[in-house]
Structures are given as structure tokens and as C-alpha cells.
What we know:
GO terms for molecular function: ligase activity. Keywords: ATP-binding, Cell cycle, Cell division, Cell shape, Cell wall biogenesis/degradation, Cytoplasm, Ligase, Nucleotide-binding, Peptidoglycan synthesis. Its EC number is 6.3.2.9. It is an enzyme of class 6 (ligase). The chain is an alpha/beta fold and 450 residues long. The protein folds into 3 domains: 4-88, NAD(P)-binding Rossmann-like Domain (Rossmann fold, 3-Layer(aba) Sandwich); 96-302, UDP-N-acetylmuramoyl-L-alanine:D-glutamate ligase, CATH 3.40.1190.10; 312-448, Mur ligase, C-terminal domain (Protein-Tyrosine Phosphatase, Chain A, Alpha-Beta Complex). 36% of the residues lie in helices and 22% in strands. It has helices at 12-23, 38-47, 58-62, 78-85, 93-97, 114-127, 142-148, 160-163, 191-199, 218-226, 274-289, 294-302, 331-340, 362-368, 380-386, 399-409, 431-448; strands at residues 4-8, 27-32, 50-53, 66-69, 90-92, 104-109, 132-136, 153-157, 173-176, 210-214, 232-237, 246-249, 252-257, 260-265, 312-317, 320-324, 345-349, 369-375, 393-396, 415-418. The strands form 3 sheets. Strands 7-8-6-9-10-11-12-13-14 form a 9-stranded mixed beta sheet. Helix 1 runs parallel beside helix 7 (142-148) and helix 6 packs across helix 11. It is globular and about 70 Å long. The termini are far apart.
Amino acid sequence: MNKRIAILGAGESGVGAALLAQAKGYDVFVSDKGAISEKYRAELTKAGIDFEEGDHTLDKIYATHEIIKSPGIPNTTPVIKGALEKGIPVISEIEFAGRYTDGKFICITGTNGKTTTTLLIYHLLKSAGLKVALAGNVGESLAGKVLNGGYDYYVVELSSFQLDNMYQFKAHIGILLNITPDHLDRYEYQMEKYAAAKFRLAQNMTASEYLLFNQDDALIQEYKANHEVSGTPVPFGLKNENGLALRYEDQSILASFSGISAKVDTSKSPLIGQHNQYNSMAAVGAALLVGLTPEQIDEGLSTFQNAEHRMQPVGEVDGVKFINDSKATNVEAVWYALDGIKQPIVWVVGGKDKGNDYSTLLPLVKEKVKAIVALGVDNAKIVTAFSPVCPQLVETQDVNEAVRMAKGFAEAGDVVLLSPACASFDLFNNYEHRGRAFAEAVQKLKSAGI
């Protein structure tokens, strides 16, 4: 009898796991408590995979040898608790996919910066001609990539939810960028448990695998001081401390570890800001470990384009640069954006407030921001917080008007920065919609010749 496997959740990871499991000879059943999108329903139907939506049929789910669950489903849900009580193993899609390839895994986690670092590593390796796949939290399932086959390296962005329910999986190169409070409702509001989830990245490592970590991050240092962590450590940082494997000097990254001694020029990289220096050090370290030369990395850095809505240049009008950072939906992300820009800034901010404390931004706004355009339904909190340090502050609920207002404040050489610090749901469907609308408004302004 074929082994039976149940998959909970029919999104990208669930359907990828289902198709891989079927290819490996499993009898597959997919169950989604909600509605399955047309795209994934069509994929399951075409493959002849048994599935249900709108409910969980527990008898069918529990009549299996193993359960793969979507990262969005907590272990505390009744269907998972019931499985564990019955002794049925519950694993992640990443754990399952890792069984079926001999390729090397380069895995990236952290509270912030994961996507940029993942995309940069993928770009560096692909530009150098390596057979490399991009997968994980960045948008495509690892299982689907493994099913496609033909890759020597898999660059995988991992959230803490994906790291949960991973047991035998091993990263060959693991990168831990930072740990700051996030998703604590999934970890009983205990930072220790959230940090432990992030450090699952290093589980199963031996001395022949590498853990690159941010030496400057206090919570990483605290966890390492109190726990044994596997793998060969590769610390990177911006503070001039002894023992750093990767550090910055002027516009170069200096690397010295594991027999590697290299200098990589970052002057042509489009990434700006201190946070991107950490991301770049991690990416360069990974690229060196897989054998890229400094010259190959220099070239790759110069041609990299970051993901949309993350410090994305979207146009220039009369010498004024417009940057779309719509993904910056919290105060910390905005701090990094403001800190990274050296030119005078006209800041477009606002949206649905998430209980923000803007106090950490006040010194940067006072120093760098010449005018503020508040784009939101309710801007009262922004006006109260920032008008004392930036008297030139106007309000609007229209993105086209916001761009025109911002241009009116700006001079040649200035930057107009959309970095909202808020959710988008008051005026837009999501942050992508907000970012696209901003970019379109900039193009309209450019076409009008105003």
C-alpha cells in the first residue's frame, strides 16, 4: 500500500508539496479550511489530487502516515493538536522538500531584511552562471523547485513559521540577519521562544556548514551566549570588533574566514542605508562560500534590482528623485529608509495606524526632512507627532495630489520618499497597490511636464 500523506493548506507551499508528494509515489489528500484559489484548484484538479475546501474531514486527514502543514497554521489549532495526540508526525513543506534533492541550501531568516538578502544572493549566483533556484517565503514553494529539478543551489527565504516543524532539514549556509519583536502571538509572547524559532536555522549543522550572523544584534548575541549553536560561525558587523569575518571599510566589504580572503567593491550597488550594509555583507559571505570571485560579486552587485516597493526608484522629475518604499509599514522600516538617504527628503507618510510610536523618528525627521505630505484618511497622529519638528506639513487623501504636493516642496537633488509607516487599507487594497499608485502618479507628473 502506498504511503498516505495529508496536506493542510492549499496555497503555494501546500500545492507544491502535494505535487512533489504525488511524484514521489504518495497517496495525497489536500485539505483547506478556507476557499482554494482558482489557480491552485486548477493545479490540483489537473494532477488528479484528492482535495477539499471549506472544512477539514478529520477521518481522512488522520488516516495518513504524515501531515504537511501550511506555515500559516499554528500548532495550537485543533486539527494539529489532534494529529500530535494521535502520534502523526506534522512537518513543514520545507522539511518535506529537503528530502528529495542533493542540492545545497542557502537559507536566510531574520525579522527584517530577509527578502532583499535572499534576492541579492540569488542574483549574485545566477549572474555568475550557477544553477540556482529561488524559493520559500519570497513567493515560490521549495517543493515545486525540487520537483522541477536541475538545481545545484536553492536560495530559500525562511520565516519563523516555516522554521517551525522542521526537524531533519539542514541548511548548508544559514544566514541570521537580526531578531526584533514580531509575531509574538505565535510564541506565547516570549522573545526566547521566537529567538529559538529563528535559531532552528542552525539545527543539524556540522563544522562543514556555515552560520552567518549579525554580530551587532543584541538578541542574537544573547541567545548565542546561553545556548549551544551548531555550524561554523561567520560573524559580520559594522562595529569595529575583533573576530569579524565580514566587515565594511569605506565602500568595500572585507572578508577573512575559512581560508577566504577577499575585498568586494560595493560602490556600484543600488542598495542604500545601514540595514542594507548588513544585508550585503551576508549576501557577499554566502557568494564567497560557494566559490564566486570578488570580480563576479562586484559585477552582480552593480546589476541588482531590489524587489518592488522596497526603496525602489520610480522616476525623476526636474532633478527630484522619487522612491517607492511602500513596504515600510512599520516605524523601524521607515527609520532605516530615512537613515539611508543622504539628500534632503520630502516624506510621504500615512495610512492605517498600527499603534505606532513615532518618537524614534523625530531626530531623523528634524535633521533630514524638509517637508511632509500626510497621505491618509486620518492624519491627526502624524500631524501631532511631526509638525513640531517639520512645520511644512500638508494633508491629502489622493495619491496624485500627494505626488504633486511633494514635488512642489522639492528642489533638484532632493528625494521624495514614500515610506508610510502604516498599513495601506484606508485608501488602498494593500501595500503593493499603494506603491503602484505612487509610481503611476510620478509618471503622470513626468508626462505632464510640471
